[in-house]
Amino acid sequence: MSNLALAVRDSSTMLRRNLLHARRYPSLTLNLLLTPVMLLLLFVYIFGDVMSAGLGDGAGGRSAYIAYIVPGLLLMTIGSTTIGTAVSVSMDMNEGIIARFRTMAIHRGSVLVGHVIGSVLQSVASVILVGAVGVAIGFRSTDATALEWLAAFGLLVLFALALTWIAVGMGLISPNAEAASNNALPLILLPLLSSAFVPVDGMPGWFRPIAEYQPFTPAIETLRGLLLGTEIGHNGLLAVAWCVGLAVLGYFWATAKFQQDPKR
């Protein structure tokens, strides 16, 4: 069997393993998924009328704020889901199963690939669920073309891939599952410091660079432009650049750490 065929076969096996774990132990994924859902309901029904005053002329009310907040929460959902990846990788590294895999005739990289693909699939499923909740409470994207919907889906998948590789690296450097969860906490906190809930223009001047120069804000603005027809500007290129950069960084970080850790 060629090296590529071996890698594909073993990666498929590891993917099935991770999906089976997610099915048998859904509590972690559900707990992380509840955060964006609860924030969506909280900000729409409790703060929606007040927060909408900061959107342009503020005439749209709660319905305008639903349209504004949903794209940001879709990306926040990806950040929440990938925390489960960091925890899962850390558990594998510290429970001895990785050491056993290393004694078997399997492609070494398949262990990480299985985690990454499984996490991306879970992220997409979580985004669909949160999106369905958004639609149920009034979110609409009537002006988006089929090509824009495809581009939006591609951005979500690329963003999930980038954050997943970062989460895998965080899981590999963590001594236990609790530390992995704490290390990956910025993946939830960064959306709170972005344009997910309020426009960057409405933030204090000293705080704007924090919101602008991070991966979530350009990705959120690009997703809004694709789904709602707002101006994207340079955010599209920035979003793709952030995704590619984080994916490459996470890949080399994770694989280097995985290769240099023979004690587990």
UniProtKB/TrEMBL annotation:
- UniProt membrane topology term: Multi-pass membrane protein
Assigned GO CC terms: ATP-binding cassette (ABC) transporter complex
The record's listing under PROSITE patterns reads:
ABC_TM2
Q: Which residues form the ABC transmembrane type-2 domain?
A: 27-261
Q: Does the keyword Membrane apply?
A: yes
Q: What is its main location?
A: membrane
Q: Which GO terms describe its biological process?
A: response to antibiotic
Entry keyword annotation includes Transport: yes
Entry's transmembrane regions: 25-46, 66-91, 112-137, 149-173, 185-207, 232-254
Q: Name one GO molecular function term.
A: ABC-type transporter activity
Q: What is its subcellular localisation?
A: Cell membrane; Membrane
Record keywords? Antibiotic resistance, Cell membrane, Membrane, Transmembrane, Transmembrane helix, Transport
What family is this protein classified in? Belongs to the ABC-2 integral membrane protein family.
Name of the featured protein: Transport permease protein
Organism of provenance: Streptomyces haneummycinicus
